[in-house]
Structure formats: C-alpha cells, structure tokens
Amino acid sequence: MSVIQALLLGLVQGITEFLPVSSSGHLAILENLFQIKNQTGFTFEVLLHIGTLGAILAAFWQDLKRLFLEGCKMLYDAFENLKTYFHNRNQQDARRYRKLISNNYRKLLLLLAVTTLSTAIMGFLLEGGAAQAKENLLAPAMGFFFTGVFLLVVDFFPAGNKIPKDVGWTAALAIGIVQGIAVFPGISRSGITIALCLLLGFNKKFAVKYSFLAAVPTVVGAAVLELSQNGGKGLSPEIIGTYGISALAAGIVGYFCIKMMLNLVRKKRFVYFAVYCFLAGTAAVVCNFVL
C-alpha cells in the first residue's frame, strides 16, 4: 500500500465513520476497485479506527472524564455497601446503603457496559463471515441497502426526549446487538445505532453522544484483541509510518465530521443519507458485475 493510497483510505475513514454511510463499506469498495492490498490484514482497519477514536476522545473528553470519575465513585460506594452489609449482619444494625445509580452519568456508564457486552458477543459470532464479506462488492452493496432502509424509516418517527435515567436495559442491549451487526461492510455503525436510539425515543443530542461513546470500548477492545493475536507481525517501520499517516488523517477529518453530525441529527434529515446509501449500493452492484 502506497502513502497516497493509505492517505486516501484515511480520509475516507474519517469522513464516513461519523456520517451514517458506513466506513467499512467504502473501504471495502475502494480496496476492491483499486486492488489495494495491505500486508497485515485486520491491523490496518484497527489502526484506522484508533485514529477516529482519537477524534471521539477529543470531541467528548469532558463526558469521558466524568464517566471515569463516576465509575470510580460507584465502585467506592459498592465497597462501602459491602462493608455496611457485614456490619448490619454482625451488629444487628440497620445502616442505610448508598445509592449506586445516583445520577445520569452513572446510569449512562452502566448502559454503555450492557451495550459493549452485547456488541462483543455479536462481533465474536459474526467476525468470520464479516471477513469473507469484504472480499467482494456484493456484500457491501447489501449492507448499504440495509443502512439506507434503516435511515429512511427513522425520518418518519417523532423526536424523543429520553436521557439516561429514562433508558431501559433492553434498549442498551438492542443497541449493542445492532452495533455488532455493523461489523459487516456497508452497514454503518454510527448510522444504525443513532437511528435506533432515535427510534427508541432518545433525545437527539444524546442519541449522537451515546452512539459515539459506545464506539470507544468497542474500538479499544478490537485493538487489544488484534494486537494480542497478531503481535504486530509484518509491521515494518515503513508500514507503521504509512498506516500512521492514514490514522492521523482519519482522526483529524473525523473530529470535524463529529461536529457536523451533531448539527445534522438536530435537523433530522436522514433521507439524504438514505438516498446516498442506495446509490452507493447500486454502484457497488454494477461495479461487481461490470469489472
């Protein structure tokens, strides 16, 4: 893979990761059309996602910091409740327990944990099929059509106003499942998770935030798994430099696309992205048979 090719893929990743048009679908199409080969397989995609992960960290740093702090406090409260339990049992006392889910950030943290767990299970089950699906253009085309239908439907639903305290565990589980399905090329992770959040009645701003925050543990987990399995095999200094340029481009462009997505969701005009997905899917089908 040349530097120009890596830069192109990085720019495409940064733009399409945070817009509801499937980054994996675009990458699969470009790699098939231009016969772009990467020597280290899945590692390249992981590094691209780490680049866009940097964009999420920059855009939602305050939320992530608050989630971390509330998580630490919640663990401390759980430990104190355990001490209270043994005290009450031994001393026949009736000390009150601390409330663990005492604010929206604590509820959000637990919701994200449920989403991450279901995503991990789905990703594990579908990983083999997703890898094979990237070898042709028909699979990404079907993914684009699926995403387009999902986006088209959400435009006809009224906006909700749910924030973390109003969201149930089943909703978090469902979001994790569809996020896991997005491992297939052409299915937009951000598109179907944001759309599902809106269908479930989430506040528009919270829907975008939840979708992007849910990507953080998923990307980190995928990176750790890939590095543990691959151990960096085949990564020469030259390849690392080329991939690094691609990841940097994805991160910089992705940061600005996050801001754009926040504005787009407020206006709720997914129909345009749905049309784009249908056109991209049709083009992929045509190219598959013509080329």
Core attributes:
291 residues, 11 helices, mainly alpha, single chain
Provide a brief overview of the structure.
The protein has 291 residues and is an all-alpha fold. Helix content is 77%, strand content 0%.
Can you count the beta strands?
Answer: 0
Straight-line N-to-C gap:
21 Å
| Helix and strand composition category | mainly alpha
Helix content: over 70%
Q: Assess the beta-strand content as a share of residues.
A: under 5%
Question: Helix-strand pattern, N to C?
Answer: HHHHHHHHHHH
> Mean pLDDT, nearest integer?
85
Report the principal-axis shape: globular
Largest sheet: none
What Rg is obtained from the alpha carbons, in whole angstroms? 21 Å
What low-confidence regions span 5 or more consecutive residues with pLDDT below 50? none
Number of helices: 11
What's the layout of helices and strands?
Elements: H1 3-17, H2 23-33, H3 42-59, H4 61-91, H5 104-133, H6 138-154, H7 169-181, H8 189-199, H9 204-230, H10 237-267, H11 271-290
